[in-house]
């Protein structure tokens, strides 16, 4: 599957305005919402999101007529970023490519938790995002396995669940989270 075929990219692209100023506001709203969801979860204030983005609440509602559409767009945008990172790191050494992608995946998990609180599991966005994420990150893991630097007795789903479990834990700071993630990934890495 090529990058242009990812259904999640189409979702965000279809909602993004074409005018430069409107597109800039749209992007600012997504970034502000991502920050607000990371800090306050699903209960983040729409007024706060608009203020962070430097726009009025009317601009937020023009772009995202419902809270659900905002959550879905932020979630899809996060997955698009995971796809972009996978493409960006694909030519690196297999272990470095995989761990670079997983580092971005840990940031994605913060947003995912907030979105999952707000949307039911029946939302079509979850299936589309999962497919895109697996199509982007899965080959990085397989490549690391084929290069002999990642365990072969696990699959990509196992790896994502392990990392997701780590990100669900409360840490003192990001440095501690990254240290714990590094320890876990040492258990995945195969050394000569």
Automatic annotation (TrEMBL):
Native organism: Streptomyces cylindrosporus
Annotated Pfam families: TetR_C_43, TetR_N
Superkingdom, natural source: Bacteria
Entry keyword set: DNA-binding, Transcription, Transcription regulation
Domain HTH tetR-type: start-end pairs: 23-82
Name assigned to this protein: TetR/AcrR family transcriptional regulator
UniProt DNA-binding residue ranges: 45-64
